[in-house]
Amino acid sequence: MSFPIERHARKYTYKDYLTWSDDERWELINGMPYNMTPAPSTKHQDVLGELFTEFRVYLRDKSCRVFVAPFDVRLFAENDNDENVYNVVQPDITVVCEKSKIDDKGCKGSPDLIVEVLSPATAKKDKNEKRKLYQQAKVKEYWIVDPLNETVEVFMLKEDGKFHDSETYSKEDQLKVGIFEDLTIDLKLIFKEG
Predict the structure, then answer these.
(1) Whole-angstrom Cα distance, residue 90 to residue 28?
(2) Whole-prediction pTM value?
(3) Which of 93, 113, 116, 152 has its C-alpha lying 20 to 30 A from 71's C-alpha?
(4) Cα separation of 114 and 117, whole Å?
(5) Beta 184-186 vs 174-176: how paired, if at all?
(6) Which residues is 27 bridged to in the sheet?
(7) 39-78+88-190 — its CATH code?
(8) What is the pLDDT of residues 97-143, one digit of tens each?
(9) Residue 182 CB: number of other CB atoms within 10 A?
(10) Domain positions in the chain
């Protein structure tokens, strides 16, 4: 499970995070470390690979870029140094359209689109803590992909800075990507049988 580790009651920063072993994957949410080490399932990886391919092909000659985990996204970090950054996530897929936010460590600031593919270990955190965090960070579009039920739940940031009602798509649907005018993904291709 993706539980926070027990490390006293202190908050950790990205500076601390950079000193931890590369043998394990971690995320920080409001300074609380979460171990992300359990390996994802084959179905998770299949769905992630298909989605990444769709974005990668579409963005090939465009200014936006797509990244697949592990890729550090430092939220609320645009004007801060590493010791003042308390939120570092590794979304399954990250789309960034502002080149100034990309550096050698990953993304510094809010991406335009984040995709999380659920696994038993991360589902609760992806649906609750991360959804709230991505809303606070003003991520324009957030997808929660459920590979077992073959659904995609899409949250779009509204003018008031909040995610309101989400739209849920199933394997039979065509999903129009909100941040791009001309990208539609056929979910039959994403949730195809192995």
Answers:
(1) 9
(2) 0.93
(3) 152
(4) 10
(5) antiparallel
(6) 34
(7) 3.90.1570.10
(8) 999 999 999 999 999 999 999 998 889 999 999 999 999 999 999 99
(9) 7
(10) 39-78+88-190
Token pair of 20 as six digits: 């931890």
Tokens of 134: 């991505």
Full DSSP string of the chain: --PBP-BTB----HHHHTTS-TTS-EEEETTEEEE--SPPPHHHHHHHHHHHHHHHHHHTTSS-EEEESS-EEETT-TT--GGG---EE--SEEEE--GGGEETTEEES--SEEEEE--TTTHHHHHTHHHHHHHHTT-SEEEEEETTTTEEEEEEB-TTS-B-S-EEEETT-EEE-TT-TT-EEEHHHHS---
* Residue 103 half-sphere exposure toward CB, CA atoms < 13 A: 9
Pick the range with the lowest mean pLDDT from 87-91, 156-160, 163-167, 184-188: 163-167
Residue 93 near residue 66 (C-beta atoms within 8 A): yes
Structure tokens at 24: 């394990």
Nearest-angstrom CA–CA distance, 36 and 1: 8
User: What tokens were used for 77?
Assistant: 């970090």
